[in-house]
């Protein structure tokens, strides 16, 4: 349709080429989509009438008038019975003249796939069936299942373990419409109930800290439901502070029994806490002990030597006295 110029002011009206905007892709039935129909070069624009139809059914549209233009917008929601190729048309009338535009659109029905778990929450060790199903003509792919023959249905089974807790399963559905590939997805989450766990990685069995250092005892119990964790020292049941940053005291040393408890069971783990003293203090104690040992040895040797000298002096004095008391032998 070629471009036309409007007559002089005062004429009953004129129409220039029509520009309409409709979906370039197939449109889903039951899902609303918007159609715009616009026309420029109108005079007087406010007298223009716009009609939008789908499958020869009038659509409710709202016109917006500009100085020399009109824009009509309609929200379309087709019925399932209207699936397939339908005609979308726009007619603008002004001063006894019409401008028409027509285009075929493809309406299709494509609901999301139905993804189900035989049970959304199970105990550890339970067999769970994961199934995805869609309408005929749709191809589904299910996470966790190797690709196979294209089909509208897929399923597999798994033996639920603690590692499957909060595992997400997804199903993707694909539908080819008029050369365009459409996709829709669905997801489900599995919850697994399992007893308490305490292992070496999350709760080490041996801790060695230096006295006075800032340390945090980390001991994490796992399980669903989440277990309660307490660590008590053998002998006096003193509680070990877990997860708190604090200075280490020698009083905290000892062997503890860490117990994780939930409605699904109890598990116990032994944890040993060693506290080492400051090296400077050890050096001082060793030095003091060495000095005391040296002084004691010197004192012992001095007293022994003094006693020996005293003993020799005493013997010499006794010998001299005996010599004086002995009478002289006559010639």
TrEMBL record:
Domain of life according to the entry: Eukaryota
Domain Ig-like span(s) in chain numbering: 196-274
Gene3D superfamilies this protein is in? Immunoglobulins
Report the transmembrane regions from the record: 280-302
Per UniProt, which keywords does this protein have? Membrane, Transmembrane, Transmembrane helix
Alphabetized GO MF terms: integrin binding
Q: Which PANTHER family match?
A: INTERCELLULAR ADHESION MOLECULE, INTERCELLULAR ADHESION MOLECULE 1
Q: Which SMART domains match?
A: IG
GO-annotated cellular components: plasma membrane
**Keyword Plastid included in the entry's annotation:** no
Please name the source species.
Ursus maritimus (Polar bear)
Q: Please state what the protein is called.
A: Ig-like domain-containing protein
- Alphabetical GO biological process terms: cell adhesion
